[in-house]
Design goal:
The chain is an alpha/beta fold and about 325 residues long. It contains 10 helices and 13 strands. It has a 5-stranded mixed sheet, sandwiched between helices. Strands 8-13-12-11 form a 4-stranded mixed sheet, with helices on both faces. The longest helix has 22 residues.
């Protein structure tokens, strides 16, 4: 028998305000046509002052627990991936814990920007397989609008706010290709800090800072790194790209999604795309896309998924999951 981390529930929460490209063009020097042609983005959600990473994460967690049919008290681990925490400390995961009414469980944040959800997933999976937890909430949540320079049209049009969550449960299986996380691979290369970063921080400027990005260079690295790590994770699971039912990618840019699929010879129809509706929600984008495809019936139990993401750092990773 093998102990695996099985996804038993998914959920999301988006800010109430939905902003179209046309509305954005009223205050930013851009057009709907320019944004769609270069990114595929048509809408994004922007958090109000009352909506925070913590409140969005809590809403997504409640939705995932409802889908799993579990009370919050059954959770003994919360791993929250975010680059936009409510406070420098304590971890926003502890605020989610309190909001869910859980008196005591392991709760902490993971910071790996857009790859954060993949990092959080591997951490939770490792803890479950090690016997340190039975059921985990793995959450990606961001309020990236707080970090944007709204005078930089090259970056501010790309991002949005939101949260997605999954419930993982340790389950024994004697099927080598049964449900659960089959393999995951993570990477980082800090030499590329200047290509995608925020120009602030508690120990440097004492400010939150604003997002800065060299988009063309990031695109080039993303296509190569994502295709490579997807192949690596599939090989670790003893599988081939042709075995994949769905790719659930980080929703950074429609062009990156297309280029990555082509490098793996995967048909575009197998790639879950939500970037047009949500824009780039950083660590939230993979669980948002996953929940969208579960809710609309595309992803079904037993399907083989590859989750992938790359973000500032650079960090990148992929996970092979039998849903």
């Amino acid at each position: 028998m093998t102990l695996r981390s099985v996804i038993i529930g998914t959920g999301t929460m988006l800010p109430a305000r939905r902003v179209s490209n046309a509305e954005l063009a009223e205050t930013v020097d851009t057009t709907d046509e320019w944004i769609v042609e270069r990114t595929g983005i048509r809408f994004r959600h922007i958090a109000s002052p009352e909506e925070t990473t913590g409140t969005l994460a809590t809403g997504a967690a409640k939705a995932a627990l409802a889908a799993a049919g579990l009370p919050a008290q059954d959770v003994d681990l919360i791993v929250l991936a975010t680059a936009t925490p409510d406070q420098t400390f304590p971890a926003t995961a502890t605020k989610v814990q309190a909001a869910l009414g859980i008196d005591d469980c392991v709760a902490f944040d993971v910071a790996a920007v857009c790859s954060g959800f993949l990092y959080a997933l591997q951490v939770a999976d490792s803890m479950i397989r090690a016997g340190a937890a039975k059921r985990a909430l793995v959450i990606g949540a961001e309020t990236f609008s707080r970090l944007l320079d709204w005078e930089d049209r090259g970056t501010c049009v790309l991002f949005g706010d939101g949260a997605g969550a999954i419930v993982l449960e340790g389950q024994e299986s004697d099927d080598s290709n049964g449900r659960g996380v089959l393999a995951s691979k993570l990477h980082a290369d800090g030499r590329h800090n200047e290509l995608l970063y925020v120009d602030g921080g508690p120990s440097t400027t004492g400010t939150v800072g604003k997002l800065r990005m060299k988009g063309r260079e990031v695109f080039r690295h993303a296509v190569v790194n994502l295709a490579s790590v997807m192949e690596e994770s599939l090989a670790a699971a003893g599988l081939q790209p042709g075995d994949v039912d769905w790719v659930v990618p980080h929703q950074a840019n429609a062009r990156i999604l297309d280029a990555t699929a082509r490098k793996l010879n995967l048909p575009a129809e197998k790639v879950i795309v939500t970037v047009d509706q949500h824009a780039n929600t950083s660590a939230a984008s993979v669980p948002l896309a996953l929940d969208t495809a579960v809710k609309d019936g595309r992803i079904k139990q037993g399907d083989l998924l590859v989750l992938e993401a790359m973000g500032g750092g650079f960090t990148w990773g992929a996970a092979v999951v039998r849903f």
